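Consider this:
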Amino acid sequence: MSDSEVFYRAPIYDNIFSYTSPRELVRLGRSCHAAYAAFKDFSRRAFGINRHLSDFISKPLLFRGLQARTGTLIAGSNALQFLGRTVYDDADMDIYVHPGHAREVTDYVVEREGYEFKPHSKQPEDYRKIVADKWDNTRIRRDYQIKGVRSVLSLEKYGSDGYRKIQVIECAMSPFDTIINFHSTCVMNFIAFDAAYSLYPIATFENWNTLQVWRARPLHDASVPTKYGQRGFHWLSTLPLDTSLSTSFFPHMTRTVGDQYTWKLPLDMEGVDLRPQMSSSSTPFQFDPVTCNGWSLMERDGQMATVYQPIQSAIFRYNYTTTSALLHVDLYHFMLEQCFLRRMSLQDAQADIAEIAKQTWFDAELAGFWQAYKHE
């Protein structure tokens, strides 16, 4: 059998590809036409998002539609398993939710998927007393001890497939802000409705290294490095001196979600409903808000830390981050202008009160600014 004939037989190339890292998998797929066809076939099956979600969600397409209209991300061990093509025993699914969407997402998991809320000792029995429909986009509340987290709701279900647990994490600012402040880089991966992302793919899936990130609250729980050590990762408390390893963390560089250093894996979108227009006066947009975020990995107090400036205003439905000073200044002027125009419309005695009550969001316009400064 010739080398090229291997790529015509799925049982053979499945066995080869299953032991191949993501980067080597792509390289193999570029070696010849037969290998490319085999690579596409294997990837379609290995990265089947609907099958992956079905371990926790009975109707994956409906859930991904919920993700699309709320910007909800799946992160933590679940995203790591999906991109790493592996399974961790007893791992749950963590869902990260924008402010103002926690009630909608939790209602869906409880009412549509049959999960039950399991409060901890300091939570009320009814989760609706913890997360509400009302929210204020000009304030950041941190009621939880972890940076970027406002509340955590544990939802459990027992069925024919056994015990399942989903945690809905209500974020104080945004899912991205919470994820980028995780304990280390190997868990800075997430699944949106249309794509999965790894922010440090070479370090995570090629070198199996994870770099501890500086946190406002020290990492007292020694079980975290131990847990990820058992999963095959080498825990690094500081940036390695060996440049062949340190460069895989792209230190002191301006990063954006989806940049050339990100592994972005597009997902099958057949049957997934996209985001509807948020209001009649808002410009429609159907991208995930996470794609308009930037950060840098910089040194702070002898450790590496994620650094960025928040983008937050009452004219944006979602909150964002950037390291671009020019983008921040231009958005500041744009926000002032729009807030002034809104104030004037409210003072107009002839204004249609019903129309004024319909919030106009400028997230689509922010995306235009973002594209202009993305590679600045």
